[in-house]
Every structure is written in C-alpha cells, then in structure tokens.
Amino acid sequence: MPKLDGDLDPLWQDLDLEWAIGQMLIMGWDGTEVTPQIRHLIEDHHIGSILLTAKNLKSAQQTAKLVQELQTIAHQAGHPQPLLIALDQENGGVNSLYDEDYICQFPSSMGQAAAGSADLAYKVAKATATEVSAVGVNLILGPVLDVLTNARYQPLGVRATGDDPQEVSQYGIAAMNGYKDAGVATCGKHFPSYGNLDFLGSSLDIPIITQTLEELSLSALVPFRNAVATGKLDAMFVGGCGITNPSMNVNHACLSDQVVDDLLRNELGFTGVAISECLEMEALRNEIGVKTGTVMAVEAGCDLVLLCRAYDVQLEAIAGLKLGVENELLTKERIYISLKRVLRLKNSCTSWAKALNPPGISLLAKVHPSHLALSLKAYDDSITVIRDNEKLLPLNESMHQEEELLLLTPLVKPLPASSMTKTILESKNKSDSTPTNHDKWIHRDRGAIMSGEGVFRELGRSLARARHGKLLHTSYTANGVRPVHENLIHRASCIIIVTADANRNLYQAGFTKHVSMMCSMLKASGQKKSLLVVAVSSPYDFAMDKSIGTYLCTFDFTEMAMASLVRALCGNFRPRGTLPGTLRKSRKAAKSRQHWLVEAYERDRDARGLGDLLQSLARASAPSLQFLQTTNAFGFELFNSNIEEAHFVVRNSSTQALYGFCATYYLQGTGIIGALFVDPTKRNVAIGRSLHRRALRGLAQKRGIKKIQLGMCFPGVFLGIPMTTDDGGGLKTWFANSGWDLQFPRRIANMTIPDLSTWAAPEGLLQSISRANISFDLIHGIDNAESVLTHIAAHANPEVFELYKLALQETKTCGVVRAKSHGEILVGTVIICSPGSPLAGLIPPLTSGGDPVGGIIAPTVAPSAPVQASLVMQGLALMGVRQNKAHKASRSLLSWVSEEVQEPLLAMGFEVLQAFEEFTNSVDNWQDLA
C-alpha cells in the first residue's frame, strides 16, 4: 500500500509516468456494456477513475456485473489499486441508478430539509451509500453544498438544501457522515457555488458568479468551509462557471489557481482531492481546447480531471497531459502530489478484495425492506402544506364522493430516475418550450429518460382510487387555458393544479393565475370551486403569493413523492414538512408571539435529547464553535451548594427530542444565563423566546437579585454571545430585541498555543518579569488558598470564586499559580490543570480529539497592581505553559481572557480560539417578569 503521509510506494516510482497521469483522469462513456474504448483507456492509458451515469445503468444486478467487469479489467491490466467508481446519486430527481426492486428512491436535498430532521438526512445518506456500495460504487458525487442565494431563479432548485448557509451546512454534513459511515467516499459540490448564477448571454455561454469574495465568504462558502473543517470530506467538485468581480475575473473556476489553490486549498484548508467539472463543455473546447484546458486544470490545483464520455476528447486530454510534461508545464513532483491525494482517497474507500467481490443483490435484498420503510417515512415527512386558508385538506372532508375532482398537470422536462424507465425507451421528445441556458447548463449529462407526463398520469389514477370518486385529468402547456380546460373547470367542484418550477417555466404561473381567477369568479356566482396548487419541484413557485389559498409542496415528482402526496391529500397522515431556509422564517415570523411549553430539565429524561441537540448544533455551527462537539449533556450541571441552578427545555413529549435548552444559575445577587440554544431546524418559531422569558422570570424572582449576566465561565461553554464571522450580528440583534442593553460588552476569549512542542518563550520576557520583581509560586489545596480566594473575591465574578474553590480541591490535577510583587503583594492568579482534569467536563475546549490539552484557566490580575498588568498576565501565562509542558500536554488552552490583555498574549504566540461578549444588565430591564 502507498505510504500516503510520506513518499510514494516504490512501486509507483518504478512505473512509467503515464501510470500516474492515468490516475489523474476520471472518464465515462455511453452504453450499458464495456466498450472497446473504455477497455482501452483502462488497459493502455491506465485510467484510474470511472464516472457512471444513467446511460450506463439498467438495474442493480447489471450495475454490479458492469462494475465488477471494470475492476477485473483494471486488476488484470496491473493497476496497483482498484478503480474509483463515481456516481451521481443525489436522490429526488437526480439518481443515476434506479431499480424498483432493489434501489430505493428518497427525497431531494430540499425535501429532506423540509422533513426537518438532520438525523433522517443522515439515515437517508447512509442507506443510499449502502445500496450503491453493494453494486461496487465507492465515490458518491455529493453532498450538494450550494446555498441558493437567489433561490427563486436558480437552476439547481431542489437539488440544494435551501438558502440558509447554516441549514445547508447542517444537512450537508449529516449526509456526508451518512456516506462515510457506509464506507463510501464523498465529494462536496459545486465549489465555489452554483447557488447564484447569472446568465448574462456571454460569448462563452456559461453562467457567471458576480458576487465578491467577501459576499461569497459570508454565505455561499460557509457550508464548504464547515464541511472541510470536519476533516471528513474526501473530494471537492470544482465547477466550470465563470467568476466576475472586482478582485477576480475567471472564465472557468476549475481552471483557475485563484479558485483551486488560493481559495479552496489555502483559505479553506482543503487537503483532499479536487475534481474538475467535465472539460467536454463546448465553451471550453471552443475557447482554449481540451489539451490546454486539461493542463490548466492540473496547474490550477485539480487532482482529477473529468471527461464525461467523448472518446476522441478523452484521448485529446491524455495527450494534453503528456504534452504538458514534455513542455515542462507540469513537473513530475506536481503529478505525484495529485497521485498521492488520489491514492489516499482510494485507500479510504476501496481495496481489491472489496472491488472484485461486491456484495451485490444479496445485500440489497436484505436491506431493501428497512430502506423502503425509511423512504416512505422520508417522503411523508417532507410533504409540506404552506397554506390551507379554506381548510380544503383532507379532500375527503371538503368534498363529497360524487363531486368531480379535476387534475391539471404540465408537460414537463424529462425526469431522471423512475421505475417507469423499464417500460419507456429513451425519448427525444421535448416539451413545447425551448430549453433555456439554465436548463441546458444544469441538466447536461444527467441522462434524462422519461417525461413527467407518465408520472402524473399515475398520480391521477392513484388519486381516483384513494378517494373512491371520479377524477378528470388533462395536461396544460404554454398555449394557456384552452376550451377543454374551461369545460372541465366548469364541471369540477375541486381543481388541483400541479406546477414544476413555475418561476422558470412562466407559462405555468400564468396558467395557474388564470384558473385561480376563473375559480374566484365562479365562486362569486355561487358555484363550488375549490382550488389547490401543488408545487412538485421548487417550493418558490407560489410561496409568497397569498392569492393561492391552498398550496402544497412535494420537492420532487418521483413516484414515491406522488404516492405520499396522494396519502396527504386523502388524509392518511397530516403533513408536517416545513419550508427551507428564509421561506420558513418569513412564513413563521408572524408566529413570533407563539408560546411553547417550557419544562424544567430532568437529567434522566432529557440528557440523551440534550446530547443529540448539542451534536446538531455542532454540525450546523461555524468552525469557531466546534467545541460544541466535545460538550456533553452533563457539562451544564455544577452540583455546587453555593450556586442555585435551574435549567429549562422545550421538548417533544412524544419523541423526547429537545427543541431548545437554557441553563441558568444564581449566586450572590447575580442571575446568570449560561447557555441558550435551539435546534437549528426549529429556529424562528419562538422557542428561544419562550425559553428566554421563562429563564428571566425564574431569575427575576430570586430574593436579593440585583443584576442578570449573559455568559459564564463556570461552566465555560458559552462565555457570552459568540462573536462569529458567519453570524452577521443576528444573535446580538435577537438579544437586543429581547430587552438586553448591549452597549457595554466585556469582550473575552479562549486562546490557545496549538503546538507546545515548537513553542518557546519570547526573547527578553523572563528578563522583563525579573526586572519588575514579579515572583511566582504554585499552590495546591484549599488550606493554602486564603490569599487567593480573597484576591478573586475582590477582582472577579462570583462564579469565578467558585471555580477557584473547585480547582483548589482537585489537588491531583489542578493548582493555582500566584504572582507576587514587592513585599509579597498578590497581584495575579491563574488556575493550572493537567490533561484529563475534571474541569474538562465543564470547559469543552479542554477536550480535544485525542490530543492532551493543558489548561490555564481564569487568569485574574489586580488592576491597581504596582506593576504593569500586561506583564503580570504574560508571566502567569508563561508559568501556565511551563506546567502544561511538564504535564505532557501537546497544546495549551488559556480560557476567559479579557480583551485588554489579549494583545501581549498574542505577542507570546497565543492564538484566539473563540471570542465572546459578556453582558450584565440590571434586573430592572425585565420588571414585568418579577
């Protein structure tokens, strides 16, 4: 096996460089059998990666046989490692492999987010990856990490989670974890973003990103950054779009070192495999040619160059790389860098034993029943009723059985992945509208195979059977409302109009508005004319149009989605799906006065739910808040007789899931909110407001209370309001709207020295401390601590006093360093704790994945000391680092550091890990709660 963290295995050094070049290419072909051309590419050009599309795949059994044959060809040709076999399997309308008997259909990314459960998204991803892995696939081109910045008009549509960067992060990381846990490698896409593309009619006929890097960083790049920060993303698909802004002018992102090397690798820190967009795109071929384009992609930093299917173009790309070496544009060292990355990826997801013997149908038959049940649940949970103003749902309660129901459906673009593909040959029939640049760009190479008309025909039959009544069904087109439609509308008492991306197929919007106006006029004349509109793709069609009184969304129009729609319409279950991102927020803003039941936290009942809630927060948070991954449910409980604590939850009493949590403490006239958080999928529905109000009411009623503090160092989960670049001031605005005066923050931070083995004290620091006559000693035990506790009581918050008492009682793992000036005057103190100290359970950054972390906690310097306070702080930090090194810690955490002393600590080599703002307000701010 290759030595991936060092030099290449000598085997690769002995092979001709053409072998390494072959490992840098990922190629596909048309056809369901191995062709002489693809065999030639594997045997003679040593191609190491294959992309399979719907045009290659007929069934699960055929796919397993095909993949096994490809791997056998590679093995017999002497490939040192198996082929990467890549597949688009996003679910919803984009599935390259579908087999009604063995491969399950699941909702689109946006549909999964509508279901409101990141855990469900994880299970769906794991099931999907388990199925494709069974037939030999080892790399899924997913998850989609694009943020729909301009959601209504973007071609990605429901393939993306939505327009909220944190929600996209949460569901993207959940999917990524599901793929990984099933043993399949992952590839985030489409970097830097396909979520806000402009089609400007350029001569290149490619979409353009016009946002600045700053704008991209605050939104579009957030999910990519968060996914990279997990360390679990194996590959990144770099798009072929252009970028035009004041700091960058790029024709094809995947050919630009500004995008791949600078932005992806240097700024985001990505060390995995970068995969280029398919270089067979016409714009690239016409502009610079595939030979040059392939070399440019590698020069830019791509490790795998994608050529989808054209054999002559694939040979041109191979020749281009060889010519790049001959022209010394590509060095052997550069090629080996990519080779090592690709081999490391292969090592993580495949082996010859696995590649040559996929479990195939035997495993698929075993898991199919449970996966089918998961699919049914996912689709039922995703169905969303946005409005039902006239209470038309379910239909069996608003319609008599003898009344006629009319179904009007559009003639839509072909839909990939459907069970009907077994009986319908690939058709060249197009819809009546000319494809736009959007459609041509986003649907290319997707292997579209059937018209949605067949699915809607079956929808009509299913609906008629389910309601045991008469149903009329016809299609509509860009020709608008025809006499046949008018006649049927007059006959029916209820009309259902289906739309599919009406924002981009404007004839659907016009038709729907026309029918809506007709129904209103007929109702005014005394006739019963109920109208329901169902968006079977993007929910943005009529989300904000209140004139459509009953509006549902399914997020795709596969057979599974339509079956769930029928069950929802007929009352078999109550739809509970929610809109994605800002649509949900705008819809639920009016519900901000909603009050949730707030209950006291009970450890036995709620600890597991709190742990799950913390993990959901960690997955959805910026890298600066990743300490939440090491926070456990017991880290908020102090069991300190001097501190009253009361914690609150909003929970689902049926499932025991926690939707929100708030931790409060009270001591010496100060009430403290030490934590307040809400499940990312349940925000903007007043859960946080209900918890906040209950917490304040409990604190305001304490006898002798004088002030209320936001943030706490003991326990030190949230030292205050987190200051993150991704938040954009949203949290502060929320607290300001909740009655807090945020004018005078106390800015505090956790700081770190990430590598103690290479750290050394700044030159001259010891001499400066000595000249100032500052001395230090280390004490253990409460019996020796009178002067320390007196110092803390005078200069720190009351909870810090209790933190010091606890540390002094932990004599085996904790101690206190004292700083003294002239005449033994105590001028500063700090807690020192060794790795594994009990304090780590209360201060999450002290726990890190396997690395021993030493603590330097709650430094407190007397502001009126006869020596310079910053020098005292540097001395305390220096003594702490020395103790951490002595305790074999690999890094140091310096916690609860005030802003005014951070600069001298930065000069010592400390880095800011997390920054917070602590606020203290008079209890009079909330007099109405007392």
TrEMBL record:
Family statement drawn from the similarity comment of this UniProt entry: Belongs to the glycosyl hydrolase 3 family.
MF terms in GO: hydrolase activity, hydrolyzing O-glycosyl compounds
Gene3D superfamilies: Glycoside hydrolase family 3 C-terminal domain, Glycoside hydrolase, family 3, N-terminal domain
Domain spans labelled Glycoside hydrolase family 3 N-terminal: 20-345
Pfam families tied to this protein: Glyco_hydro_3
Keywords for the protein's UniProt record, in alphabetical order: Glycoprotein, Glycosidase, Hydrolase
Taxonomic classification: Eukaryota, Fungi, Dikarya, Ascomycota, Pezizomycotina
Name listed for the protein in its UniProt record: Beta-hexosaminidase
Superkingdom of this protein's organism: Eukaryota
GO biological process, one term: peptidoglycan turnover
